[in-house]
Amino acid sequence: MTVAMLPIATELHFEVQQQQWLISSYALSFGGLLLVAGRMGDLFGHRRVFLSGLFWFGLWSLVNGFSKSPVMLCISRALQGMGAAAQIPTALALIAIKYPAGKSRTRALSVFGAIGGMGAVTGLLLAGALTSTIGWQWIFFISAIMSVILFVLGVFAIPNTSGLHGESPKIDVGGAFTATAGIVCIIYYISSGVEAGWASPQTLPMLFIGLVLLTIFIMIERRISYPIMPFHIWKHRAFSTSFVVVFIMQAAFQGFLYYSTLIFQEVLQYSIMKTSLSYLAHGLSAIIIYSILGKFLPRLPLKPFMLIGFFFLGGSALMFAFVTDASSYWVLPFLAMIANVFGLGLIMLPAQITALRDASDDDQGVVGAIYNVGLQIGSPFGLAILTVISGKLNSGVHGPARMHGYKYALVGVVVFALLGFIVTLIFLPHVKPAVDNKEKTLESLEEGGISAVEQDNITETDIKVTMKPLEDCTQMQEQKENLNRGDDKQELNEIEAQAGDKQELNEKL
């Protein structure tokens, strides 16, 4: 949409102040419904919600292509965003449930990220080519066609999953309404504040309403037994810190993406198609880097990778800040693109692994949804601050001279990256990707001299039988510690005797 925004606005006669709604209408519905869609997947089955969202997305993509007015396009874009909201958290949940924590999940998330990079490349190239030739409408028509194809494939390829809370789960209607409306109001305030003013009658009441609704939402969630957002997920410091980290990361990345596009088109005077091709290095690098990271991350601490990622993210913005109208693409812009995708890969994939690590299967949908809410709110938040900086410095300036304001906005991106580095360094615990029971047992067998060929014949039942004494010993140790704090010495002696027998069996295994 970024490269096609100006041609769409020209053909449909958007006013200048209306152009932001091409992006904001989609972002509002997408960000506002993520939490609800993620929890609906937990309740009614992630496959069902994912496929429903895919069908809905394709339907309104088709309507977008036939839009003849700004109002029609913005409304259909908002409805399209609802379909996207149903797909993203449920896709993450399907991966997390299908692949247990450890190597398999890390590699699955790496493939997920690599395909995302491939999609970004394809989308940019197609958007530029279609807009320059047969028209922007075909951006949406292609999306509709691909949605139909993916829907059919999904029906046969995605395993059927039932809801995790029984046949007739209770729905937190009050929480769903207040969360959705509150998030929409906050995103609207952030997105519209730049043009209308942060304290204007148009935006300030929306901030107040959003905060009130979110306060009511928190009160509802604390009082009911079937909340749409269980508060126990926030007790995991790794998850709560990951949410803040991806919020800051997305604020920095969206700023980089926005201003690099403006620099290509206004400072370097690139055409729409040439701008699209300029991002080819970014997308192709994402495919390669995510694939490589999937092989190295499972056994390594994640925190150092994320710290290095923020270094690359800030460095990429700093390189773009020194671009001039005489700069060659292959010097600063190209190197900045490579550094930026390194930063994204080193932050986003470890953050996904960390966020999903401690969540139970019942909470995978809502955890994936909240993670993506952080991404969605981070984008307009970052742009809102950065556009204030560039707007003040570029007032009345046109053409390549606008690089002056863009330069200081990109310095703002560097500040975001520095903030993310500090938050990660101080608050993120040192964690590795979790290792599932089968991986632990196979490693122990290998250390004991059992070959890989022999390991191939070991079944899940064998794993469970082997792990059972270990689990029993752990439970007995906990009981012993509890009894040590009490007075029942006879029961304590019985527990110790049983634990000794179990320990002997464990040593034999």
Automatic annotation (TrEMBL):
Kindly state which keywords UniProt assigns to this record, in alphabetical order. Answer: Membrane, Transmembrane, Transmembrane helix, Transport
Q: What is its main location?
A: membrane
Q: Which GO terms describe its molecular function?
A: transmembrane transporter activity
- Which PROSITE patterns does the protein's record reference? MFS
Biased composition annotated in UniProt, kind: Basic and acidic residues: 478-492, 499-509
A single Gene Ontology CC term: membrane
Ranges for domain Major facilitator superfamily (MFS) profile: 1-432
The residue ranges crossing the membrane are: 20-37, 49-66, 78-97, 109-130, 136-159, 171-191, 203-220, 241-264, 276-293, 305-323, 329-349, 369-389, 409-428
How is the protein disposed in the membrane? Multi-pass membrane protein
Q: Where in the cell is it found?
A: Membrane
Q: Does the keyword Signal apply?
A: no
Annotated region (Disordered) at: 478-509
Return the Gene3D superfamilies for the record.
MFS general substrate transporter like domains, Multidrug resistance protein D
- Tell me which PANTHER family the record gives: MAJOR FACILITATOR SUPERFAMILY MULTIDRUG TRANSPORTER MFSC
Indicate what this protein is called per its UniProt record.
Answer: Major facilitator superfamily domain-containing protein
